[in-house]
Amino acid sequence: MKHIISLKKGIWLTAIILISVGFLSACISKPGSEGEPTIENNWVKFSGEIVPAGETSEALVPEGSRITVQILDTSKADTSAIVLSEINWTATESFSLPTPYRMMVPQADLEKAVQASFAVRIEDGEGKLLYINDTIHLVSADQKSVDIVVIAVGMSGEPSSLPPAFDGQVWQWIAFQDSADGEESNDISVDDPASHTLELLPDGTYALKADCNFVSGQYTLNNGSLSFDPGAMTLAECGPESFSNRFVALLGDVVTYVFNAEGNLVLNLKMDAGDMIFVRAQPNATPQPQPTATVGSSSILLNSSDSWRGVGRININSSCTAVLIDTGAGDAAPAFVLTNGHCVEWLANGAITNQQVQGEVLFNYFADTSETTIAIPLAEIAYSSMQGSDIAIIRLDTTLGELAKQKIIAFPIAKSALDSGSQVRVVGAPSSGLEQSEAYLREEICQIREQVDLLEFNWHFYDHYATDCQDIYGGSSGSPLFSAETNTIYGLVNTTVKGSSACYLGVPCEISSGQIVVNKDASYATPIHELGACFTDTGDFNLSADCPLPSPEQLSFTETVHSPSQPPLTWKTTLAGDLPYYRYKAGPAGLVDCRLEQGYSSIISLAKNPLIDDPIPDEEGFYLLCVQAGKSVSIDETWQNLAYPTIEIAQIDTTPPQLEPQLGIRETPDYFDVSLLFIPPELSDYLYKFGPPETTDCAIKDDYNRYRRISISLERGDGPIRLCVIGFDNADNATQTLDKVFDE
User: Fold this and answer.
1) DSSP-derived pairing of the beta strands 148-152 and 43-52
2) Which backbone phi and psi does 601 adopt, to 5 degrees?
3) Phi and psi of 731, rounded to 5°?
4) Cys bridge to 477: 166, 340, 353, 708, which one at CB 3.0-4.6 A?
């Protein structure tokens, strides 16, 4: 979620989010033999072999390895690849590649995908990456068996090693030298090298800072060759002068590296397109110990202290911060930590309960204890949701007593909310946005302004603490918000303002009395007071009537309005679920309160009327659809608690994008290579055409082509070329037409 979580997987795009929806998972011992794809009961079947690259006919896959094959929708630039289908299995004995696979994908999902491709990942029993495909294998419903070629990354048991020049070294980008000369050159000089950095980690992953964005993914390094596998990138808008997108795009074309006479790192691009030049980042001086942060100061790096050993870094679906909680049941009670729900799954409505999970929490996570952190395995996601609040409750594979023996002490949960103006202490374990030596437990003292309702992306949050905390980095999600006077937990930091598109990812909006406001100086925390009521006398989690969390038992929106949109628009929302009755209301965000009885419809039978298709006002703004459901024909204790209604958000947007179409241009002696850059939500789609200036009229709209994220090659040699480009935002509002003539 924006700059707060650290994303792990994705594809090379200008801005992406980690989202996996609509997948089919099957656990099998080993797939069958190959065959032609067929369509049966609205499913498309595929088969083939996973084949090792190069001339080697066999490649060993050790016993216990995990093999995953996916079909991905890679057609959208404003989200990561969407998993359409997935199979995975564990090797019960060692075997050699090639090996067969067989899988299915819903025909409807495949038809919706403009571009779909296969992906393979093979990891050993400890999760270390062994093989991955580094070429695109496109999916087509009419193609025969598809063999997927994979490359070897490393074998389990072999020590991970990096050349000394890379090991522990952060590299800062200073320039791009285009291979073209003179006026054709697209050289780049970076004024602030620290704003664009590269680090290769021993585990085969890389970490990028791209101006105000952060990227992580896999790399391959071998005898002078270097390539970067698809990575995931945060969504902040760094401004029209930023090199953020260009930096990421150039790294995607890297094939080799050398070091020049000055000791600088030179990354060579494919097709001799140019070189990226990096210098070594100088190590930071060792921070001087400070007793505590002061109000309004930036955060400070913490050295070892028994006071904060119970706050750590949680590695789950993303890297976040987690805090150990005291459930009041004594040393024999199971240990639980709190973090944000978005660190587990982006679930706007409903909840995950009692789900097994893999991962760990690293306690004793201080700058001076990096070699002696204490790793505790995760056992279960007891609860996770983003409905109204942003909370996950994770059970650890240990007890409070066992942790106490290691001086890891749990923190008490508040029983009431903090007052406006209260001073608070944030202790978190950021994972990106800082030098590695700085990315340990940090402390900041700040102040609560008030409690507010928020809109961000497709989430609606209630009563969040608005604070003036400033040092919120990638991985700070889940950082406990303590009273500055005690060690009692009142909230979990979950979002901050890092972009410019109101109410989009990274730009939460405060809503009240019909007003929607972006407070650029605010960070927010989800309240957690009274969560102690969710635990029994023995310390077990129990989603009882007293537990102030949404129940997973509610209706879901199976078909919803696409937001944002232009008018006219209706809700066009279909409800589904096991609760047979519901009621609803709708209205402008800030004016309609879904938690109040006023305005709800009479009770409706789901079986007879599952569709809500009321018109949405044409006036620009955000609108909420509120649903409450239950088991009986009258509202009683079987009905969903009105404090946690199910909510759908719609946006009417009639304002044209504030940005003009953004071009990335690379020149060679033979052509202009033009990429159209995506900056959602302002620039999410493009139409284009090109031709001789005298016969190409940008004002004629009939002959434009949709841009499919494949660069446009304009051949040189036949005179000037006119390129016409129209950009569109998420609501399909158009920019002014960009009319650019490329001269010889």
Assistant:
1) parallel
2) -70, 175
3) -95, 5
4) 340
Contacts of 694 (CB under 8 A, 6+ apart): none
Closest CA relative to residue 276, chosen from 299, 253, 242, 297: 253
Q: How far is CA 2 from CA 474, 525, 658, in A?
A: 8, 14, 21
Please give the structure tokens belonging to residue 331: 């040393």
Q: How far is CA 676 from CA 385, 656, 743, in A?
A: 36, 18, 19
| Partners of residue 622 on adjacent β-strands | 651
Q: Are 446 and 469 in contact (CB under 8 A)?
A: yes
pTM: 0.64
Candidates 58, 72, 55, 56; CA nearest to 121 is 72
Q: How far is CA 361 from CA 73, 273, 488, 515, in A?
A: 32, 44, 20, 40
Tokens 């656990």, residue? 27
Helix (H, G, I), strand (E, B) or coil at 151: strand
- The distance in angstroms from the start CA to the end CA of the chain is 45
Q: Which helix (H) or strand (E) holds 111?
A: helix 107-112
Distance of CA 431 to the CA centre of its chain: 14
Phi, psi of 534 (to 5 degrees): -90, 5
Measured CA to CA, the distance from residue 271 to residue 432 in angstroms comes to 32
Angle at 384 (CA atoms; ends 598, 482), nearest 5 degrees = 90
Q: What is the dihedral of CA 664, 668, 670, 671, to 10 degrees?
A: 0
| Six token digits for residue 389 | 């609040």
Q: If you write DSSP's letter for every residue of 298-357 in order, what string do you get?
A: PPEEPPP-GGGTTEEEEESSSEEEEEEE--SS-TTSEEEEEE-GGGT---SSS-EEEEE-
Confirm if 116 and 73 have CB atoms less than 8 A apart.
yes
CA distances from 386 to 16, 461, 549, 557, 559 (A): 20, 8, 10, 15, 19
Q: Report phi then psi at 364, rounded to 5.
A: 55, 45
Report whether 297 contacts 290 (CB < 8 A): no
Structure tokens at 85: 């289908």
pLDDT digits (tens, 9 = 90+) for 251-308: 988 988 887 777 788 998 887 788 999 998 865 432 333 334 555 557 899 999 888 9
**φ/ψ (deg, to 5) at 730:** -60, -25
CB distance 130 to 121 below 8 Å: no
153, 140 in Cβ contact below 8 A?
no
Residue with tokens 């303590």: 482
d(CA 583, CA 576): 13
Residues 344-354: b if buried by 16+ CB within 10 A, e if exposed: bbbbbbbbbbe
The label of the residue with tokens 């033979």 reads 670
Among 684, 348, 649, which Cα is nearest to 501's? 684
What burial class does residue 172 get, using C-beta atoms within 10 Å of its C-beta: 0-12 exposed, 13-18 middle, 19+ buried? buried
pLDDT-derived band at 144 (thresholds 50, 70, 90) equals low
- CA distance readout (Å), 133 to 30, 59, 300, 370, 566: 19, 14, 42, 34, 40
Cα–Cα nearest to 511, from 453, 597, 461:
453
CA-closest candidate to residue 381, choices 546, 543, 576, 558: 543
Tokens describing residue 622: 């955000």
pLDDT on residue 500 = 74
Pairing of strands 604-605, 581-588: antiparallel
Q: Which two tokens stand for residue 131?
A: 């093989």
Cα–Cα distances in angstroms (integers) from residue 722 to residues 182, 267, 660, 692, 726, in the given order: 22, 33, 17, 6, 13
Helix (H, G, I), strand (E, B) or coil at 170: strand
pLDDT in tens, 496-546: 998 778 898 889 999 977 788 999 889 999 999 999 999 999 999 999 889
Nearest to 131 by CA among 218, 233, 228: 218
Question: What is residue 194's three-state secondary structure?
Answer: helix
